[in-house]
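Feature request disguised as a bug: please show the residue count (212) next to Response regulator receiver in the output. Example input:
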Amino acid sequence: MIVDDDALVRSGLRLLLGGDPTLEVVAEAANGREALDRHAADPVDLILMDLRMPVMDGIDATAAFKAGPNPPAVIVLTTFDADDYVVRALAVGADGFLLKDTPPAEIVAAIGRVRSGEPALSPSVTAALIKQVVDGRDATREPAGCDAVDMLTDREREVAVCLARGASNAEIAAELYMSVATVKAHISHIFTKLDASNRVQVAIRMHDAGLA
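Example output, currently without the count:
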């Protein structure tokens, strides 16, 4: 589903994605409330979500999607890579973000990464986003981060530290001498133990605990 209040943007994205045989655009929406209603009537697997929209913005919509059962993957769209809206969207569970001037091939590749469980975030952007969240945290967050991290095994903690650096599954596998399948299994356990729905949330918890 493409969610954007600009009809021209929606049309352009539909045209762009329609050329890929692995993708099918099945719905459009002009705001978050409309997107939620359309998803309730006919669930989708992945959403390209604009952030600034009337009625319900992308942050509130993403939070609502992720709070529901079997939530779709959500990639937020933004104009600025340091936009506070993006930080907030990732904090509520978005699986990644794309700039609106991202080349078409990269948009398709990013969607493919998210569909396979990888984040659509570069390491440099991940670090910048985490820094914004960590710099603004309050005094109560660090103890909570320590308590959460204490539930991880030593191996899971090593993987989580790599995640906090923005490393991909393949990079973690190479660094820790394990298979990509094993890395994915550890990440699944980490998400469960830390009550996280994406890698940025894991990274924030690791920073809160002083381990990244």
